[in-house]
Amino acid sequence: MTWRSGIYAIAFCAIVFLIGASYNVWRPDSGQKYQPAAPRHNFDADLLNLSWWPDLPRKKFKFEDSTSPRKTQYHILNKQDIYKVGETLEVLITAKDHMGRLKTYGGDLFRAKLHSPKKKAAVTGQIKDYGNGSYLTTFLLPWPGEAQVNVRLIHSIEAIAVLKNKRDKYPEKVSDTVFLLLRHTICFY
């Protein structure tokens, strides 16, 4: 009796398969060729745009001309005594070279975060490069209490130019270096 139930199960599966296959062949729009949905984003172009970086305005430069994490300054633009959750904090970064001169071009790679050591929470800031040595960092204030702003100069544009050159010639020898730049504590409720 068990071999008959096995045959019935196989026959049932074959009938279901044939019904499904015949539905796909005889349905009204079966003469049309399958067209996949158009992609919403061109991810290849997005990745290329993410890897784009501005070139140096001149080919030769001295170390003193590169962005200095010690000389670079920042200012809180919308400084208040008390901030509310959901507001934004704006920080203007003004890049300077090792001689203390204002940079006249952008392209430096900064990373900024707002964090609370007590709450063990952090958010990153959005950084806009104005292309003239100044950068606007915007943070959303998502929690009540104290928070600290940290801005790091990852690479100056001059270092990026060297890394791009080395990446193209010797990709296996490129490494990452991070410099701590600034710390600032604010309170908001």
In short:
With 189 residues, the chain is α+β, with helices and mostly antiparallel strands.
The helix/strand class is: alpha+beta
CATH class of the domain at 64-188: Mainly Beta
The strand count comes to: 8
Using the 3D structure, state the CATH architecture of the domain at 64-188: Sandwich
CATH topology of the domain at 64-188: Immunoglobulin-like
Report the radius of gyration as a whole number of Å. Answer: 29 Å
Q: How does the major sheet shape up?
A: 4 strands, antiparallel
CATH superfamily of the domain at 64-188: Immunoglobulins
Q: Give the number of helices.
A: 3
Strand content: 25-35%
Please state how the strands of the largest beta sheet are arranged side by side.
1-2-6-5
Q: Could you give the order of the helices and strands? A: HHEEEEEEEHE
Mean pLDDT: 76
Net shape: flat
Contiguous uncertain segments of 5+ residues = 178-182
The span between the termini is 76 Å
Percent helix? 10-25%
